[in-house]
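#dry-run=false #mode=assembly
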Amino acid sequence: MSDDLEQRFADALRRRADAAPAAQGLARAARARLARRRRGQLAGVALGAAVAVAGGLAVAGGGPAPSPVPATGPATGPTSGSDDATVDELPAGWRWESYGGVEVGVPGDWADANGSQLIGQWCVDGQEPPDGFVGRPGGSTGVGCPQRPGPTLAVVGPYVDLAPSIEGAADQPVAVDGGVATQVVDGVRVSVQAPEPLRERILATVRTVEVDVNGCATTDPFSHEPLAPPSPASDVTGLTSVTAVSACRYALDNDWVDGQLRLLSSERLEGAAASAVVEAIGNGADGGGPDTPHTCLPEGAWGDEGLVLLVEHDGGTARVHVRYQGCDHNGFDDGTRTHALTEEAIRPLLSGSNTVTTGLSSAAHLVWDLDR
Amino acid sequence: MGVTVAEQADERSGVPDFESWVAARGPALLRFAYLVTGDRDTAEDAVQDALTSACARWDRVSRADDPEAYVRRMVANAHISWWRRVSRRETPAAEVLGAGTAGGSTLPEDEAVWELCGTLPRRQRAAVVLRFYEQLSYAEIAAVLQCSEVTVRSQVHRALASLRSRLEDEER
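#status=ok
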């Protein structure tokens, strides 16, 4: 009876499917819709910034979002896949910063910050840019700041700003305008503002890499399959003699982000700091989270970025995928299970160059001092 | 919109270009979407939406083991996620509107099945269509709907029990 009933069910559905619409012009309609959607994305940039502010995710000084986190530690780590330089070529006390396959050396006491806000929104009251910082794209207030005086050295101080090139991927030589030197390298726009000879010294360090100084590749499959578990799986609770953790922060594929997805930044923990963070990950509850899937769109389920952790231990290198920016699927996924995010585990990984300035959803309270 | 260099390269490497693939698989996707949504306009919208996302990353989608499964999954989940449909509602393009075949079966048994589908929650309805129309295994359906295999089995069996009851009532 059951098999017969299933067959009758299948036959009825098959006959009913004949009433489906005809497929005329589907591809052309999809392309047209894609074009509209992309135009909408461009128009939505300012809207997104406004939402970030309205949602309490302001990045200006005094708001609840993170202030720039001073970077720590010297330029150490695995050998870079450098095309034309090595770590040893940096001046003493400097460190490497990487973005999208491009590295640049900066003074070691420079902070990491939201370049979109501090530079693009230089006229917003209450901002106190650190004395020397590395800027990356982030949420911003969307204020139309006047051309003059602009984010000059006197206004925002010295900085290196790293961002996707809006002029295209073709390399462009250094051009100086108003005290800011800008060049495009492998699709990354590097802008440097600093007094000479510091500006020249920074520019001289710019290089492309396939694997950055912290051991992070420029691209990773995780960007395209954010929900796929790492392979091979490695139970983090069983890892012994952990010596280092590379935290590689990547742009993730979703309905709103198209194009080449690359490394956004990286950090590296070593010794006791590395083993402590791995232990903290293992202590997180099974099942992942915190998730609030009812609060946001599926497009935001895993956010625009995530981490790949490369955990070096006595048995080799284990991968852990970390989703923290969305409303769902959050957690540390080691391939055997997903551990919940905890403050002890996630904060050390999202500090320094990996500071997140916008877009956090369900896990915001674990990463940011929202009560501050 | 013209064909891009990348798509021409795809043609040379044997990977189907977007237009060719949609021409071949579009009808099957629409039939599936119609059964899942129960409405022709909604089906068109769901398929166009899924194809739009697939088009944006065609280079990757086309190299997947089963691109149709990828798009089918997007159709099913887009419909299940009603909040997404509300928030991102777009009007199906004019060239597709009104292009459907009229009618469909009017057999009493077919009507009973269709009425039953209309009463099912969206996820359960999608599970039933994936099981009996697409002939997927329970494990495959669970992967598509991102739920457990146990849940899928339960939903399908409950739908079968309801259909059995309806048909027995009609035969009395």
